[in-house]
Amino acid sequence: MAPNQQLHRPVRPNPSHQMHSAVQHFGEGLPSVMTIPYVDGTTDVNRAQCATGPAAVVNVYNTDPVTTVEPSLELSCVPGTGALTVDFASFGRPAVQHRNGRFFMCGSADCPPSTLRKTFWEDFDTKLRYEVGSGPCAECLHHRPTCPVANVTGAYFFSLGEALERFSCAVSRDCAAFATNSSCDAGPSVLSNLKSLCDGKQSCSVPVAKLLPAGGPPAGCAPASQRDPLLLAVRASGCQHGTAVASFRQDLAGFLLTRGGHAWMGHNWIAGNRPAWYPEWDVDFGEPLAAPQVSSDGATFTRAWSKFNVSLNCDTFEASFDSVQA
């Protein structure tokens, strides 16, 4: 495949996994450019809470009246760090972390324009201010029927230190806070099913509906609601927690399969959002050794790099990064 060609096999992913990006080649010797959708990695609380391995806390049922997409469990390993071994699965409720502080907005004339209509969290213990992620704070805290927001001056705003991460609704989805509950346990069948689908793989994407036991979750779990949804918490070991959002692995594989000698991969328009960095961008894949190859059935594209073999199956939409032993 010449450097100025693209993958011609039509990609037919699951509707919940659409290939949002494309590699553009402008000719021999000119740069390859890939843009990907912006996803703020600082809201991925599971990366910090469960740094020992991949983890996810997802809704069991779709509680969003706008979309019809059913929830899907996504686990991913950073390339070269190992493979998944699912260790834990439990149904449960979001565990709200206790924080000593308050929500506030900067509402005086001396407030910087960048704070306009933004909500922040003031942590009384650390004296830091956190920008609040998307979603009403009342939905983040779940157990509070109302969410008072104070007004502060610009001088007070600047007296607080700026936290590097955001205060997000994800704080109520702390995977470390889940424990097996006999009245609402995922049970051995769910764990066994997960292990059969995910163990030994570099990444795993499973519709949550496929994991539900016959008859649905145990009665002790109570019905789900938009305000207080039933969640499924999963933890795994065997590798470093990787990025499992917005088809990132597939985008990365497509980039490595088709890029030329000079290339750039990054976000498209991110407006006023914070820059994001993914652990996969720290991986040294080496240098490409040959042009990409296609399987006899036309479904899988592979390319040898000096430190990895990269592949993308366009039928299953599964990307693989296999380390090359020195």
Spell out the blueprint of helices and strands.
Layout: E1 23-25, E2 32-36, H1 45-49, E3 55-59, E4 72-76, E5 85-92, E6 101-106, E7 120-123, E8 128-131, H2 137-141, E9 149-152, H3 154-159, E10 161-162, H4 187-198, E11 203-207, E12 231-237, H5 248-258, E13 263-267, E14 293-294, E15 300-304, E16 308-313, E17 318-323
Parallel strand pairs: 2-13, 6-9, 8-10
Antiparallel strand pairs: 1-2, 3-12, 4-11, 5-12, 6-7, 7-8, 14-15, 15-16, 16-17
Low-confidence stretches: 1-28, 45-51, 138-145, 169-176
- Roughly what is the average pLDDT, rounded to an integer? 74
Approximate helicity band = 10-25%
- Judged by helices, strands and strand pairing, the structural class is alpha+beta
Number of helices: 5
Largest sheet: 5 strands, mixed
Total strands: the figure is 17
Shape: globular
Give the terminus-to-terminus CA distance. Answer: 27 Å
Rg from C-alpha positions? Answer: 22 Å
Helix and strand string, N-terminal first?
EEHEEEEEEHEHEHEEHEEEEE
Strand content: 25-35%
The largest sheet has its strands arranged as 9-6-7-8-10
